[in-house]
Amino acid sequence: MAFDLGCIVGRVVNKSHVFITHGHVDHIGAVVAHAARRALQKQKPARYYVPAHLAPHLECILQSTAAMQGDVPFPAEIVPLQAFDEVHISAKHLVRAVPTKHRVPSLGYILYEKKNRLKLEYRHLPGTEIAALKRAGQEITSAELTPEIAYTGDTTIEALTAAAVDERTRDLLQVKLLITEATYADSKMTTQDAIDRGHIHIDQIADNEKLFQHVDTLVLVHFSARYSAEQLAECIRMRLPFSLQHKTVLGC
């Protein structure tokens, strides 16, 4: 699976489940190219999961591209999603859409691992009794979901602070790997600038240190192009508390 398609990089063409957070071109602009490349390689059509209001627009783009090329549209399945919809992408994995807060309607996504575990009321029984119950057709297991990866796309810090008190989105802060944005990382832009533009300032990450105490790895992405890799590394060292420094990774 993949999150967002602003460009085609690496082996993303091989991903058949693509989750789009919002309609800005740096997050959705390469969907047509992705569908085209898969068609060229004779791969089955991918599924593109998008906030519901984007579905007709994306269908229109595929149709318009076909018209410009004088051909049929590239094969693609557009799947509209609302907040809290769930998608079973395999027998072992499920993706849940969660609300985020950007300048345009947007969604984030949480990837869960699904495992069938013995129900609590049967865990004290010996194996022979459990086997007998199973032979008798008794449902002795239930599915348990473990939050593995979360991706917010573009958002304000509000999506994360809200998750601390909202049972429906709390798993954003319980994952092994959280990928979120930190568009601004210096004093030239304020936290209010970030809020006004629908983004996060790295100082807001620092100010909400405790939000991330259960996250194993925090990947920060979507930095403004004004920053070099060296400047960003220095910002992490100078602006984040130690508890976050050791778990934070710079993305792109």
Automatic annotation (TrEMBL):
Pfam families per UniProt: Lactamase_B_2 (PF12706)
Domain called Metallo-beta-lactamase: residue spans: 17-223
Highest taxon above the source species: Eukaryota
InterPro entries (UniProt xref): Metallo-B-lactamas, RibonucZ/Hydroxyglut_hydro
Protein name (database record): Metallo-beta-lactamase domain-containing protein
Organism: Phytophthora oleae
